[in-house]
């Protein structure tokens, strides 16, 4: 990239980052209490709820991980996208409305741990404590992976030292999250979601036009994909080998994680009313379909042909996960030569990373301030004190995540995969049962949460089979096992112990009647 191109890209990055900080400053004036800081006063409109939920969900995986996997191994990688799409649809259609109403009915719960506590009338705060600790631990690591992604993006595109790049990204995310809280995060995520979608749709169309639709197959063939072009385009193959039933099932299992993701569920809780929520469903589902299939998958396929004869992933070239970055650089600095526009699209990748990091940072800080501090340590704390603790928590958690991310060789995809599985197994079955099975009780909830989390740890981290973990030995994604282990424990323990009180049952039946709950 020449000096003029680099300067234009850098200017685009500066403009974008300045806009994010300005949004944080704007909402700082409107944040008066902890409800504003964590849920925006439950005033989220349909468009912001939909795009912020999906932007905070997809992260850099959508623009780097998925296209890179398709580029390297072929369209057989589509099954993760299929699983995530199904999970998104079910989450918006089945979970969103009832969770929003239930959290209001359950003493206006502001966080997922607080909802568990109020839903099961847990006076001893066991559920609150366990779920809060799980959230803080997983989200600190999750945030670190996002910060590391941002550092690597700056490093690749601008040639900035990784640690300097990491610092810039961390400071900007910290600034607007610290100042504006939930509404700042959601508004920036809304902007970022639009930017991501535009980039995902525009770049592959331009690349396909340049390489020529009729020439795409020949261009892909010139890169000698494993098994040939037909294998590369076979959705039931992987790098020239047939996918097994276990392979496909494990990829589809990613969709199970949605109903246990605190940073996504909190958007449902914050929507203004059921009318706005119905609007959000349509917007979110369309966004995900376009982004996953037309964007993520097509970028990997078209990128393979467009970048030919260059083959990414070799010792002489960059990682396959950078296929989108390399496409943007080549299109907008060589083929079209509008580097500032290229810089805007590169900001789309940064947007994907930041939109997840800010949400994770906010949810983790809410668990520290609202659940651990106010819920357990100082039950009489007023809103002003909780707000102060929230902002201090944001800073502390960001610093810890920053320290973890300082290693430029840290495994980002592995951390994301394990955190997704951990949340999906610990919280997913419990959220579903809490909303749809009135016989679920506190003992079952505790058993399900602990068994789900421990299964993931056992499956992914403990070498039990000839020095290998069960995940490596079987090829089965830990979420597929952990989710159903947790679900089984919830059912068995709930049925084996005392039934919920009449008060809990009546509250459940009120929400199940689909009544709009007044705050």
Which descriptors apply to this entry?
519 residues; mainly alpha; two-stranded antiparallel sheet; 4 strands; 76% helix; 2% strand
Describe this structure in words.
The chain is mainly α and 519 residues long. The chain is 76% helix and 2% strand. It has a two-stranded antiparallel ribbon. Strand 1 and strand 2 form a beta hairpin. Helix 4 (78-105) packs across helix 11, helix 6 (126-158) packs antiparallel against helix 16 and helix 7 (162-211) crosses helix 15 (383-405). The protein is globular and about 70 Å long. The N and C termini lie far apart (55 Å). The mean pLDDT is 83.
Topology at a glance:
Elements: H1 3-28, H2 34-39, H3 46-73, H4 78-105, H5 112-119, H6 126-158, H7 162-211, H8 216-221, H9 229-232, E1 237-238, E2 241-242, H10 245-252, H11 262-270, H12 274-306, H13 323-335, H14 339-377, H15 383-405, H16 412-436, H17 442-461, E3 463-465, E4 468-469, H18 470-474, H19 478-496, H20 502-512
Antiparallel strand pairs: 1-2, 3-4
């Amino acid at each position: 990239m020449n000096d003029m191109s680099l300067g234009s890209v850098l200017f685009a990055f500066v403009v974008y980052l300045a806009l994010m900080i300005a949004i944080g400053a704007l909402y700082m004036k409107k944040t008066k209490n902890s409800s504003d800081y964590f849920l925006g006063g439950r005033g989220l409109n349909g468009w912001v709820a939909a795009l912020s939920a999906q932007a905070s969900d997809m992260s850099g995986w959508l623009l780097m991980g998925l296209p890179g996997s398709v580029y390297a191994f072929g369209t057989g990688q589509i099954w993760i996208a299929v699983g995530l799409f199904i999970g998104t649809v079910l989450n918006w259609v089945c979970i969103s409305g009832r969770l929003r109403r239930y959290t209001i009915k359950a003493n206006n719960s502001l966080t997922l741990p607080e909802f568990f506590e109020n839903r099961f009338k847990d006076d001893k705060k066991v559920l609150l404590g366990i779920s809060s600790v799980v959230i803080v631990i997983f989200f600190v690591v999750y945030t670190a992976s996002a910060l590391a992604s941002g550092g690597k993006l700056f490093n690749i595109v601008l040639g900035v030292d990784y640690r300097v790049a990491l610092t810039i990204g961390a400071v900007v995310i910290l600034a607007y999250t610290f100042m504006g809280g939930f509404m700042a995060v959601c508004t920036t995520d809304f902007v970022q979601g639009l930017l991501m979608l535009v980039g995902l749709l525009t770049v592959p169309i331009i690349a396909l036009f340049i390489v020529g639709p009729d020439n795409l197959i020949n261009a892909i063939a010139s890169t000698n994909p494993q098994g040939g072009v037909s294998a590369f385009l076979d959705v039931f193959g992987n790098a020239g080998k047939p996918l097994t039933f276990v392979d496909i099932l494990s990829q589809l299992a990613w969709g199970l994680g949605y109903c246990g993701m605190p940073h996504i569920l909190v958007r449902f809780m914050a929507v203004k009313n059921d009318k706005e929520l119905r609007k959000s469903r349509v917007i979110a589902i369309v966004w995900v379909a376009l982004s996953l299939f037309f964007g993520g998958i097509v970028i990997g396929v078209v990128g393979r042909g467009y970048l030919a004869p260059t083959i990414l992933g070799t010792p002489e070239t960059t990682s396959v996960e950078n296929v989108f970055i390399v496409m943007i650089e080549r299109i907008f600095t060589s083929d079209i030569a509008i580097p500032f526009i290229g810089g805007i699209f590169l900001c789309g990748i940064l947007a994907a990373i930041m939109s997840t990091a800010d949400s994770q940072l906010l949810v983790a800080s809410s668990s520290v301030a609202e659940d651990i501090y106010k819920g357990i340590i100082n039950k009489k704390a007023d809103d002003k004190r909780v707000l102060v603790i929230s902002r201090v928590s944001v800073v502390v958690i960001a610093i810890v995540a920053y320290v973890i991310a300082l290693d430029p060789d840290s495994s980002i995809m592995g951390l994301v995969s394990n955190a997704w599985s951990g949340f999906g197994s610990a919280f997913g079955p419990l959220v579903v049962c809490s909303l749809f099975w009135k016989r679920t009780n506190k003992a079952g909830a505790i058993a399900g949460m602990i068994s789900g989390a421990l299964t993931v740890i056992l499956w992914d981290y403990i070498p039990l089979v000839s020095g290998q973990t069960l995940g490596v030995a079987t090829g089965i994604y830990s979420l597929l096992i952990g989710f159903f282990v947790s679900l089984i424990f919830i059912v068995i323990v709930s049925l084996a112990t005392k039934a919920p009180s009449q008060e809990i049952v009546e509250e459940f039946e009120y929400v199940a009647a689909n009544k709009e709950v007044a705050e």
